């Protein structure tokens, strides 16, 4: 289920100089915004909810998920170097699971920690807002990693399609269109945050907790399973 060499190579690819700078940019911006708001207006629960929910969870987490999820496998497929990996005596699901673990780890590191830190800066974790949205960031990071890893196996324009999903569906439709909210990873993760935060934190979700847990799990498992299936098809195509 895990291969050290595959993990090391994937991590090295994800944390290359250019990609690492992109991964750091959004967390740095979040922290800078939090510091500026705290200096100007002091501790504010409402500001914490709006910034962490409207920027961290709705923009930063899905975008970093795109970078880590697609970046874990799409470049290797695009440049053909995946053939060398597939030639090794490794089970295809082991390759996918290893890349998924790495993508999840990178996404968690660049989303959960900044979200929690920004929340503490904004209001000292009053009403457990920082903790709640850090939990939401963690749960959505796992689902995003699986979905975007799958996207990396089925599309040569995985990053473009991932950005369209993250910016148009999750950030725009998922926040503004009532019917689309129920089909948003962001809203599913907010259901967990709603349970962690205090009642006065004003964190709500369009989806109930049981449904959210089922949908998050289904997205992660289905994405991982189909990505492994796609990799097996790719192997057969290259052999043929």
UniProtKB/TrEMBL annotation:
GO cellular component, one term: plasma membrane
Transmembrane helix keyword on record: yes
MF annotations from Gene Ontology: ABC-type transporter activity
Top-rank lineage group of the source organism: Bacteria
Transmembrane segments: 20-39, 51-74, 95-122, 128-151, 163-183, 207-228
Swiss-Prot/TrEMBL keywords: Membrane, Transmembrane, Transmembrane helix
Identification of the protein by name: Integral membrane protein
Organism of origin: Streptomyces xiamenensis
């Amino acid at each position: 289920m895990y291969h050290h060499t595959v993990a090391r190579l994937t991590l090295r690819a994800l944390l290359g100089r250019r990609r690492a700078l992109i991964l750091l940019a959004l967390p740095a911006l979040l922290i800078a915004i939090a510091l500026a708001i705290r200096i100007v207006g002091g501790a504010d629960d409402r500001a914490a909810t709006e910034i962490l929910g409207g920027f961290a969870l709705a923009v930063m987490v899905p975008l970093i998920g795109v970078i880590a999820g697609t970046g874990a496998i799409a470049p290797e497929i695009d440049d053909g170097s995946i053939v060398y990996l597939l030639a090794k005596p490794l089970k295809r699901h082991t390759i996918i699971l290893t890349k998924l673990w790495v993508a999840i780890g990178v996404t968690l590191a660049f989303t959960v920690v900044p979200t929690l830190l920004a929340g503490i800066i904004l209001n000292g974790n009053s009403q457990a807002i920082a903790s709640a949205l850090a939990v939401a960031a963690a749960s959505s990071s796992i689902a995003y990693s699986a979905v975007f890893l799958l996207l990396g196996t089925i599309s040569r324009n995985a990053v473009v399609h991932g950005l369209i999903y993250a910016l148009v569906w999750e950030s725009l439709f998922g926040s503004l269109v009532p019917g689309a909210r129920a089909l948003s990873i962001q809203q599913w993760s907010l259901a967990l945050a709603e349970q962690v935060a205090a009642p006065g934190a004003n964190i709500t979700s369009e989806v109930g907790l049981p449904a959210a847990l089922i949908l998050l799990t289904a997205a992660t498992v289905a994405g991982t399973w189909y990505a492994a299936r796609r990799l097996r098809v790719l192997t057969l195509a290259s052999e043929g």
